[in-house]
Protein: DHA2 family efflux MFS transporter permease subunit
Amino acid sequence: MTSSPTRTVNPWIVLAIASAATFMVMLDTQVLFVAFDDIRASFPSVSFTTMSWTLSAYTIALAATLVTAGRMTDRFGRRRTFVTGLVVFTTASLLCGLAPTPGLLVAFRVVQAFGAAALMPSSLALVLSVFPSARVPVAVATWGAAGAFAAGVGPTVGALLVEGFGWRSVFLVNVPVGIVAVALSIRLLPESREAVRERFPDVLGILLLAGSLTLLSLGIVQSEQWGAVSIPTASVVACGLAVLAWFVRRSLAVPHPALDLSLFTRPSFRWANITTAVFTIGFTAMFFALIQFMTTVWHYSVVETGLAMMPAAFIVMVLAPFMGRVAARYGQRRLLVPGGLVYAASGAYLLFSLDTDPAWATDLLPASLLTGIGASLVLPQLTSAAVRELSSDEYGAGAAVNQAIRQFGATFGIALTVALLAGATPSDAVEHFQRVWSLILACGVLASVAALALPRASRPVAPDPAPVPVGTTN
Structure:
């Protein structure tokens, strides 16, 4: 790994800036679910299908460009990519907040996704580049906790912003935060990039990867409207798989592929990403389904719903850094296996407790506590397990693959939840939601089973890193 000229850098400051950017991106993603109805009300002549692209376009663009952005992070510099992502994301947020038409709002959401795609892998790559390997699980757990906490508080923050200032405020609030983050990043973050600068990655491979992920995301996102087994859905998914197969074949043949597929030959990377996919499906399904359940079955307001979900978010915020220290000492596997089972227990509790009578303290709070504990054990450890066997030159690409898989898992989790809830009526809504709780139970168990395949590891706890001079090897 090469770095900018030697200067003193505090790893914890780097972690704080990277975590703040992650929080901003994840918060923006979650608050828009709450703001969607208010956005639709601003454009009453536009159909629901058209307005849904304010959500879908972002999801598809982000999933399609994450891996490529991660590869560019290692090639062109982590700080440069991070700052560029901040500028793009912040500018696009401003444009979204000022958008006069739905078409422009969708277009600016795509630009916003490009900024987020640059931010996510580069922020983690920056953290990995300044922390010694023994402290990586702690740092990654803290970084991951910021995103998980943003997901938990997103509904409440979004509801308060929308009710107080309208839907445009959920975008405009990013502007001052982004400006401050850019200034701090330029001043305080070190630059680093891959040590061995080879030829530019295969351009056709980059286009094939982005195209395949776009088609697969489109098929999943649109399956609700087209039908899960309809000809349009099957055609788009089949095309996506065909292009993906072409990408794999080309990546194995060219000397400088867009993504080095040998990453998946490393057991930790392979099994951590499989665990990520399974767990993210269940995590997103629970988040999305609980919002729907509380607003449609229990008739909670959006603010009440957000507040009801806060305990799990606070548990993640408090426990995740501690769990990172445990992972640093004993390895991620020892947390991931029981964590999946704890999360499965939350699904089981929801399955046997929730009914039409609102009873937050007895029916939902215990499940929320189990959810928070399970997520604290699992979510922050997934990324550190995935990158554990990677070299410093592969940080950006490895982090991006893990984030892309999370994005696909989240997209698929929402699609499955919508399919399981389809056709629900007031008289049978509880039965439809029980299908989702069963899905969550299954995902937790399967995540634990997948995590069993991770290599055993035990790392001694190293002292907290002091400020280190950039330009040395950590």
The chain has 17 helices and four strands. Residues 459-474 have pLDDT under 50 and may be disordered.
